[in-house]
Amino acid sequence: MSEPYQSPISPGRSWYEDSVGERPRYPALDGSARADVLVIGGGFTGLSAALHLARAGIDVVVCEAARIGDGASGRNGGQFGTGQRLWPEEMEEKYGLEPARRLFAMAEEAKAGLHETMVREGIAADFRPGQISLAHRTRYVDEFRRHADHLAERYDYPHLRFMDREETAERLGSSTYHAGLRDVGTGHLHPMKLLVGLGRAAARAGARLCEETRIESLTRTAAGLWEARTARGTISAARVLLATNAHGGRLEPRSAAHVMPIRSFIAATEPLAEPDRVLPGNEAADDSRFVVRYFRKSADGRLLFGGREAYTSASGDIAGQIRKQVVSIWPHLSDVRFTHAWGGSVAVTMPRMPYVAETQPGLDVVAGFSGHGVMLTHWTGKLYADRLTGHGDPLAALRDLDIPAFPGGTWLRAPLLFLAMTWYALRDRL
Asked: Taking the CA of residue 184 as centre, how many other CA atoms within 13 Å lie in the half-sphere pointing to its CB?
């Protein structure tokens, strides 16, 4: 019997891989090719862009360095969320009220658009409604209460409400947290099933998908075309979308300075013996720590718990460290067996908002969703396609954001981030 496939870019084998069913393979590029658009990266952003471009009659090639699903799009927490990564109050302070409203509305369109795509393309991704956010310190309780009122009054979002400590404990199955928010206008899903479905839909629409095809260099010719060199040939295209997120390396140095890869880790238990004692309403959950804990139950009653980040390449004992966090919330799970533990690289920006830019003529970069990308990546891929097919400039609201480069340049940014994140993690504990 052959060994199970192991992603070359992400540690551990995920429960998603073992529960997705058939995971299609797409051939590597063999020889040279031409296209109207080259998409680099086979995650949510790249596949969504390819799907919508191909449906509009654009000749598009997608190149994925590993296999589709090996990156964070196929291995994440699966939570939709509401709005952007920053709360509307934070966006108002940073950008003003009207830009904040536009960005919130874009996120709501993304939520509806992803549901529409799943229905239209027949993608069954185990969607379940509901999400709760948890206050791990008493000082956040009033802030949570004001946030629910703020969304209802200024953003016409009636689906979020404040929960006191008693209701929070009832919905969580633990009295660990001080208060919470319950959002019935969002939910969570199986990200690998969504990604596999997007890949199939893009291929049906006519996009050419190439796995295990790493782009080694990008150059612009005198004729104004982009040439992407691979180990087996070159691809020429009028436009390029760089949708590698945390895996772009220095392929495009200007964007690399603005986007930092970090690793996040998840572990999955066996099906719980008493599933109703943990998240009895089957919502997803996240908490107020800077190094956020995020968790939910799978359709077959497992606890999927993410709660550890790393700012180096080390992964260590993923399950052992996550077990401590699980038991701190639900002591009765001290002996539960973990069947899977895995990680993946996500991309963050300094302000935790997406980095969207045309860094060179015909070369667009979309990255840095900072852990809030399940629905937003899909939508930005679609908006990129809309822009190329003559539907205005719907990405302007994101492209106009001020996303500064990380301090320290390409050599010092990682050590500086490590020091900063270690400080914030210490604050979470203390």
From this structure: 7
